Amino acid sequence: MKTLRSYIAGAWLEASAGFRTLVDPSTEEEVARASSEGIDFGAALDWARGEGGPALRRLTFAERGELLKAMAGVLREGRDELLELSRINNGTTRRDGNFDVGGGSGTLAYYAGLASGLGDRQVLVDGDGVQLTRDESFWGQHVLVPRHGVAVFINAFNFPAWGFAEKAACALAAGMPMIVKPATATALVAERAVEMVIEAGILPPGALQLVCGSTGDLLDRLGPQDVLAFTGSADTARYFRTHPHLVGVNVRLNVEADSLNAAVLGPDVGDDAATMELFLKDVAREITQKSGQKCTAVRRILVPDEHLTLVREHLAERLARVVTGNPADESVTMGPLATAGQLEDALAGAAELAAEAAPVFGDGGRVDGVGSPAGKGYFFAPTLLEAADARAVEAVHRREVFAPLATLLPYDGTAAEAAEIVALGGGTLVTSVYSDDEAWLGRYLAGAGSATGRIYLGSESAAGAAPGSGVALPQTLHGGPGRAGGGEELGGLAGLELYMQRLALQGSRKTVDAVSGRA
Amino acid sequence: MKTLRSYIAGAWLEASAGFRTLVDPSTEEEVARASSEGIDFGAALDWARGEGGPALRRLTFAERGELLKAMAGVLREGRDELLELSRINNGTTRRDGNFDVGGGSGTLAYYAGLASGLGDRQVLVDGDGVQLTRDESFWGQHVLVPRHGVAVFINAFNFPAWGFAEKAACALAAGMPMIVKPATATALVAERAVEMVIEAGILPPGALQLVCGSTGDLLDRLGPQDVLAFTGSADTARYFRTHPHLVGVNVRLNVEADSLNAAVLGPDVGDDAATMELFLKDVAREITQKSGQKCTAVRRILVPDEHLTLVREHLAERLARVVTGNPADESVTMGPLATAGQLEDALAGAAELAAEAAPVFGDGGRVDGVGSPAGKGYFFAPTLLEAADARAVEAVHRREVFAPLATLLPYDGTAAEAAEIVALGGGTLVTSVYSDDEAWLGRYLAGAGSATGRIYLGSESAAGAAPGSGVALPQTLHGGPGRAGGGEELGGLAGLELYMQRLALQGSRKTVDAVSGRA
Predict the structure, then answer these.
(1) The dihedral of CA B319, B470, B194, B186: what is its sign?
(2) What is the pLDDT averaged over residues B39-65?
(3) What is the ipTM of this complex?
(4) How many Å apart are CA A295 and CA A299, to the nearest integer?
(5) Contact at CB, B133 and A501, closer than 8 angstroms
(6) In this complex, how many residue pairs, one in chain A and one in chain B, have their CB atoms less than 8 Å apart?
């Protein structure tokens, strides 16, 4: 069995005790083990702060862009190997694995281009300058400069490659060194991805370190210039938010957490419309892709009363086509959940939801998987529930069942009621809204825009090109208010802001322009 | 004795018990009493969410601009009355009181203009749209929409008028209703300022409420769409940051807290240079203005070894000219600290600093004030300390003494050492740097830019116009990293972001432009 290693202060470390076992979720066979015991986190931080940070800050944005380009290339070249690791540790089909791995290299490549476009500079100029007195002898200009600390990434189990890459793209472009801590249960892909980057000798010493296992006393050593970027559960987020040391020194924290994403069908969409076809195709995919283990997956489906029967039947039909099983079998279109714990949690969540919403397809239970031994593997039946009254249910709006399960919620077809129901989720990452009625969409935005971080507008005019609401594109923000964590990642240049300090420069225009590099 | 009232759900309420007494800090005479006992905070939130929010969101930015313009006018017209209240409750000279009151109306007027300039819209378009596929059938655009909650302001004692106005300007422009809770000890000015606005009938019902006294169970009733904007001590900030309910529902929190601001003299500045004159004038004012009770006041003064004697002598000379006393006496140029508690805390802090830095002017103690009875009033002697080794002291970089006290810190004249010493403060609101050497300033920015929220560049080319580093102008950001709270207020349009949700719209360009109002 492979022992995962950590990369700390320039050396690959293998622990000798304290292991946690990683398994293939399709077969429950052990595939690796990981432990961070013995890591000197003080040395890791010293290396990042003392060498990695200064080295990255000496580079221009364009030079950092070159690093990102090389990283994207390495992950692209290593794709097949990473997809194989994803299959045996994340239980992903090739397509689902590539959503993670290809998404990661794509995000790095996008930020490579963005950083290159900023050119030969080290200070990011933010907006226009502003005259503060009667003439240019007192002038203001906002700029962004890299934070002089370490960016710690605590990533979720579902995106070991993309989760690393999307955070690394922004932190590196900004000029911050990184310590990556993937979720232990699925660290196989992340470990190899980081190893590929390290082996390629792309980054300056201290820019990238890896922790496989727990974080030890790392958090207690962070300071006011450090950043903690977390993706995971709301419960763990609460732990970080109230961690006495993190609060005491005010470590900058970004959280991307639970999200009861909704898809909303507008009342104008006819049975045979292209927008209806897009809605059905998108929603079925957003329930089952990556076995529903996406923070952007659709959990709630709002359908006008008059369309409910049609939507119910069509979605059930599409879910019936899903072949659940071991992705090693080529007929399989959906793999298992990633861990025994995830299965247990999803089964409990499904039972909680089933108490207030009736199953219309699937039963929210475990199933045997095609190509897997009977009784083995963390397979979850694709499931569609339906609530009679969207406002009378509570768990449906609160409990994120991280599995291929969603709930149909009828509504009266008004934008106001759709907005009200979606907002019951307490803040989401994304809402997809399907309508060709722009006035209706405008009313929806006014009613529930503030309850989400992204609105995906499914319409006839987008039907040919729209990639689905589940993709977190690097050009647009990823994050949402309230329960979703209140964070902001990606979104083009905005993605760098987490890793930089925005400050105002004030002085004569001459001095301000010279110091900001604008002159 | 006047009893302060709260304005809740459309009615002025006077409590009958639970009072705290407000005094004139120059004489210790009682001037008012305040209590929030009996307030139904649930009703306050219902009124704001049910009436104020919808009414404000129905307005365009330009219409909200009109409200702000009227508010600015009301505070401007009421200035003399507010300055008098400031004198008897904040102990301010007319000039210091106007820094608060005039600053407040000026900030409202600035945001009135900004909102008007956004015109007849309700959705704020954020940056350029971006093409996400091969053609415009999939397009992205970031927008900002008002949060559907309540903005709660918990303000500091030192700026009862400006603290209300700067937050109100941004929240109202954004479209959020407000509940204002001034620091009880100096609520006289804030109560009257809010009363003036309410009496003028400017705002729609539910847009503005006032709590004089404690917050009762208000915080426990906030939800994920609400905002808590806090200005005050790092200790209180920690309370809010770890408040179980606030964390649980993820209320958006902005903190502006302690700040060990620094002024740095560059090595190039000659004894007779205009920049030296600016430095000395600015620093002396930034120590004593508002009796040092500004979050932006200079607490640490970095001076190259070779200039230390000159700077010490000149600053001592300027501090010697300060006349401390009751502002009712026209000869007085600096009033008392605002409360007995503030004096006690400042005396304790001064003693802590004096253990590692020697007094070169003043003794960090209480004094009697001109025009006040002996032994009465919270007067603090203007004090200059000096540390032999800027890196050997600890309290100087940690303990914010909220009084007219600052510490001279010699350094070797390099930008690198200045940056290192300033960063020991753990994050500040503002740093003022005096130099005409642009390359040196660039190195300083690279070294310590990330440790502050604003850098004020004092130079010959700015000498005639620069207003001093202590002014938080609405055009530029106010906030700083780490100990300073990590928040962002003001800064032009950026100031609205706290009260809005940024989200990405994705869809065909046609739909996105129509829904965002760009088309």
Answers:
(1) negative
(2) 98
(3) 0.97
(4) 10
(5) no
(6) 276
